[in-house]
TrEMBL record:
It is found in: Cell inner membrane. Converts lysophosphatidic acid (LPA) into phosphatidic acid by incorporating acyl moiety at the 2 position. Belongs to the 1-acyl-sn-glycerol-3-phosphate acyltransferase family. The HXXXXD motif is essential for acyltransferase activity and may constitute the binding site for the phosphate moiety of the glycerol-3-phosphate. It comes from Anaeromyxobacter dehalogenans (strain 2CP-C). Pathway: Phospholipid metabolism; CDP-diacylglycerol biosynthesis; CDP-diacylglycerol from sn-glycerol 3-phosphate: step 2/3; Lipid metabolism. This is 1-acyl-sn-glycerol-3-phosphate acyltransferase. One of its GO terms (molecular function) is 1-acylglycerol-3-phosphate O-acyltransferase activity. It is a peripheral membrane protein. GO terms for cellular component: plasma membrane.
Length: 254
């Protein structure tokens, strides 16, 4: 009962604080056409405060040297908390590629769209392809992206097969992919339940992987996923099946 009560408290706080930061940012976003201010709030106020309220501590391993310019951060996905975790620990102003359903939510959807995040409709092939092109334009314009190549949260906290979409973007934009592993968030807040059991969340960021070193997107995907699995095991996660690298359904999904 305590876990469920904490989960609902965090959910309510998340919604209210997000609406507050959205409306505070809205005049600036409308005047400048930029989503940088809400991203700043997300990195330095919204995410840290939400994570503090969960009672969980985020432990970040030392970061490797990251090159200047845009990057694509490819992370495994254990929990809804992962968005807050990545906003908090990554040293870049980033945007997400996210499923289109999130952009239909009241307030949150407007926040995502005006903030410059990229929606992907995985049920529509043509729109999914167009979304990948849009993501490529965002990256080429100098913005770093966060992607969850598994396409959805893991039920067992293992790293599942990756979809090809993010690696299409990386190959076309010629932008390095940075592997990221998160372990522990799935135990704090499992999928399909509103409840929180406070515990440690560990994050490791790997060396950037250059698309130029690989013949195609499948080879790039396989190597990035192999590194995510290795990082996941290093920080206490179970990793995943390295042989089952590519998701067989929804190739353009992200």
């Amino acid at each position: 009962m305590l876990a469920r009560a904490r989960g609902f408290v965090v959910l309510v706080y998340c919604a209210i604080s997000m609406a507050f930061f959205f409306f505070v940012s809205l005049p600036v976003m409308l005047l400048t056409g930029s989503g940088d201010l809400p991203i700043w709030f997300a990195r330095f106020a919204w995410s840290p405060s939400c994570l503090w309220l969960t009672g969980s501590r985020v432990h970040l391993e030392p970061l490797p040297p990251l090159p200047d310019g845009p990057l694509i951060f490819a992370s495994n996905h254990e929990s809804a908390l992962d968005i807050w975790v990545l906003f908090k620990v990554l040293p870049r102003s980033v945007r997400f590629i996210a499923k289109a359903e999130l952009f239909r939510l009241p307030v949150f959807g407007a926040y995502m769209r005006l903030g410059g995040h990229v929606p992907v409709d995985r049920s529509n092939h043509a729109q999914a392809v167009q979304s990948l092109r849009q993501a490529g334009e965002v990256v080429r314009a100098g913005t770093s992206l966060i992607v969850f190549p598994e396409g959805t949260r893991s039920l067992d906290c293992r790293v599942h097969p990756f979809k090809k979409g993010p690696f299409v973007v990386a190959m076309e934009a010629g932008v390095p992919v940075v592997p990221v592993a998160i372990s522990g968030s799935g135990k704090v807040t499992p999928k399909r339940i509103i409840a929180i059991w406070p515990g440690p969340i560990r994050v490791a960021v790997g060396e950037p992987v250059s698309p130029a070193d690989f013949p195609d997107r499948t080879a790039l995907l396989t190597e990035v996923r192999r590194r995510v699995i290795a990082l996941h095991r290093r920080i206490g996660g179970e990793g995943g099946d390295e042989a089952a690298a590519v998701a067989t359904v929804g190739m353009e999904g992200v």
